Structures are given as structure tokens and as C-alpha cells.
Amino acid sequence: MASTAPWSETRPTALIVLADGTVIEGRGLGAGGQAVGELCFNTALTGYEEILTDPSYAGQIVTFTFPHIGNVGANDEDIEDLHPAARAGAVGAVFRADISNPSNYRSASHFDEWLKRRGIVAIAGVDTRALTALLREKGAANAVIAHNPDGVFDVDALKAKAREWSGLVDLDLAKEVTSGQSQTWTETPWVWDEGYGNQDEPTTHIVAVDYGAKRNILRLLAGLGAKVTIVPAKTSADDILALRPDGIFLSNGPGDPAATAEYAVPMIQQLLKTEIPLFGICLGHQMLALALGAKTVKMHQGHHGANHPVKDFTTGKVEIVSMNHGFAVDGDTLPQGVEETHVSLFDGSNCGLTITGRPVFSVQHHPEASPGPQDSHYLFRRFANLIRSRRGEPALAE
Ligand SMILES: NC(=O)CC[C@H](N)C(=O)O
Asked: Which amino acid positions bind L-glutamine, per UniProt (predicted)?
């Protein structure tokens, strides 16, 4: 099977070096050079391009547990970050098999070329089952991924680099990946044979605070009739309210929520003094929880995949969801008046909250999928219904 990977039987052309000194050898793919970050694993079977361009993955190296990554090629349509030139998203990728030639009508380039252009350092030929078992046992690890086609590495220097990296705890990465200025978003979700649409006749206005927002979230909001104004992470509550939103959205994003909370929490607390419906996803969920007085914790290995079962206590239904988080809200710290609405059926961790009797809620998982099942799309309709109810309009079927 063809591969663009430089192949050396005798010499590895890429390494993963963990902070504990573990060295894993393989074949280099994608960009040359080195990247440092937290090494995690993702169990999704599809959607590698969406995963690697999710800005929530900034500062992380993703091990794909699915062995064949790259076979549907790459295109410019399936990226999830708002500003591709800024390359917010995963810094490295780990694969079992080499990348085969693309076979898909939507493919515009070989995935290896795409990785190179995107500046993602990648490695193939890794026993990803063993690596995943190691990460499950020891927890997500600080690591360096290095790719040199000549096969020359200073392993001691790589070990030191992995050891000396700060790690994600206390790191505010939202400020690195947020939009520099406000912009309007009107693109609606992808439809078979038609591609993406456009919201030409918006009936509501949603302000989305961008901590590293994924495009498909914005598309789903626009698809439900909203004009979306994306604002930078540090926009003040006054400036947000001056836009006269019908609803406010707090986006997903990378890094430690407790670090971003420094400026996000006072802003969210001010927004909560109004009755404007508010919806948060992932980092947005975590910061809403912090604004309400709850605590977030670093998880052992995190949740990254497209096959996680979550229970919605408000309906009793179980949904299969996309997840990508390394921190979680400690459900035991939710104050009185705040209800836990969703929980992970894998480990019981908190996956959602609402303020009793108020139009405010958030979830830890990624209801926009992209990639993943669409079971949780109802949460966008739940948000739209909070806006509709405030305006005296009939509810959509959830
Ligand atoms: N997808 C996200 O928004 C991730 C939130 C946060 N950075 C975490 O890892 O838990």
C-alpha cells in the first residue's frame, strides 16, 4: 500500500518521548520538527480532520485508537477551527498504520500533505493499543513528538523537554486561540448533496463568546434561525449586552478552565444577573460551573471519543455523544439551586447543569458532534426554545 512516509527499516524517523522517560519509536509523517503537549487518546472511528482542528485540542497530541487514519483524505471543508492560519488545534498525531492513498469523492489532498501544511507532527507504526493501555494506567502524559526524516534525535534533550513542559494545568489557552475581533456567522449545517447553507433570514441574535469555538456549533445555532455574532474571549459583559442578544453562548476551548476563569467568571457572573438565555458547551460548561461556585478537576486520562454514553436526567434518555475534555466539573460541588442534568455512564462524572427555574444550562460533551453521533442535537433546540419562550413563541419539538 502506498505511503508518503519516509521509510527506514533500521532507523525510526519519529519518536514519542514521555516525561517519565518512555521512548516510543515509529515512522515520521506530517510536519518535521518537534511538538510538546499532553498525550491523550481518542476512540472515534471517523472524523480525524475535525478532531485535529478542534481548538479544544490546543496543547495536545492525539493518539488515534482506530488503526486506519487518513483513508478518506483531507479537504478544506471539514476543519473545525475558525482561523485555520492560526493552526489552533492538536499539535501532534499518533497512528497505528501508515496513511493509505485517499479514496473519497470529497478528498482534496492526501492526509499526509494536509498534516504537513497544517504543521502537525505525526508518527505511524506505533502500537496504539499498548500506548492507550499505558495512558489509561498512568494518565494523560506530558510528551514530545519529534519527526526527523534523517532519523537523528537527541533523546536526552527530548526527555528534558517533555519533563520541563508546564502541562495543561493552570494554562489559559483560550486566550491563544480566541478570535482577535468580532465577526458575524451565518453558515448553516452541511446537507447531503448540497454542502453548507446560509442563514439568509435570521429571526434571533445569539452572541457566541469564542474560547476556541468549533464551526459546527455555530452552524447549528445559525441553522435554528440565528444570526451569530462571535466575540473574543475577553469581551466585557457590558459589550456583550450592548449587542442586544436574544441568547448568549459560551464556547468550548482548550486548556485549564480554572485559568481562563480569571477573566471569564466575572463576565459570566454579570451576564447571569440578566434573564437572557445562556448555553455553554465543554469549556463554556466548566466556566459556567465555576461562575456558580462549583469546582473543576483534572481527569486521569480524560474523555476523548465519539462513543460515550451520557444520561439526560431531565428526560431519562441516554445519548451517545462526542467528547473531548481533560478537566471536569466536580458534581459534588454544585451549589444549591444548581441541578446536575447529565452524567457520564462511563464513570459517573458530571456532564451537564442547569440553574433551577432559570434559562441557563450547559453540557460537558459536544452536542454538535463533528465528528460523532447527532443524538445530542436536541440541546440546540432546547436553547432555541428558551429564547422562543422568552419571546412568547411556540416551542420547537425537542
Ligand atoms: N472541548 C473543550 O472545550 C475542552 C475543555 C477543557 N479544555 C478540557 O480539556 O476539559
From this structure: 56, 253, 255, 283, 286, 324, 326-327
- CA–centroid distance, residue 369 to ligand 1 (Å): 14
Cα separation values, 173 from 190, 268, 344, 357, Å: 29, 18, 25, 33
174-390: what fold?
A: Rossmann fold (3.40.50)
- Which atom from ligand 1 is nearest to the alpha carbon of 284? 3
Please say if 205 is a catalytic residue: no
CATH of domain 14-164: 3.50.30.20
Q: How many other C-beta atoms lie within 10 A of the C-beta of residue 100?
A: 17
CB within 8 Å of 31: residues ≥ 6 apart:
115, 116, 118, 119, 120, 121, 122, 147
Q: Cβ(232)–Cβ(180) under 8 Å?
A: yes
Output the furthest CA–CA distance in the chain (Å, rounded).
70
Active site residue 366: yes
| Distance from Cα 327 to the centre of ligand 1, integer Å | 6
- ipTM exceeding 0.95, yes/no: yes
DSSP secondary structure string, 36-52? EEEEEEE--SS-HHHHH
From 56, 62, 329, mutation site for ligand 1 pocket: most ligand atoms within 8 A of C-beta: 56
Q: How do beta strands 187-191 and 92-94 pair?
A: unpaired
Q: Which atom of ligand 1 is nearest to the CA of 254?
A: 7
266 prior amide bond cis, ω within 30: no
Question: Whole-model pTM?
Answer: 0.96
Going 113 to 119 to 125 to 127, the CA torsion angle's sign is negative
Q: Name the region of 167 (left: φ>0; alpha: ψ -120 to 50; beta: rest).
A: left
Tell me the pLDDT of the chain (398 aa) as tens digits.
344 444 445 689 999 999 999 999 999 999 999 999 999 999 999 999 999 999 999 999 999 999 999 999 999 999 999 998 899 999 999 999 999 999 999 999 999 999 999 999 999 999 999 999 999 999 999 999 999 999 999 999 999 999 999 999 999 999 999 999 999 999 999 999 999 999 999 999 999 999 999 999 999 999 999 999 999 999 999 999 999 999 999 999 999 999 999 999 999 999 999 999 999 999 999 999 999 999 999 999 999 999 999 999 999 999 999 999 999 999 999 999 999 999 999 999 999 999 999 999 999 999 999 999 999 999 999 999 999 999 999 999 98
What spacing in Å lies between the alpha carbon of 255 and ligand 1's midpoint? 6
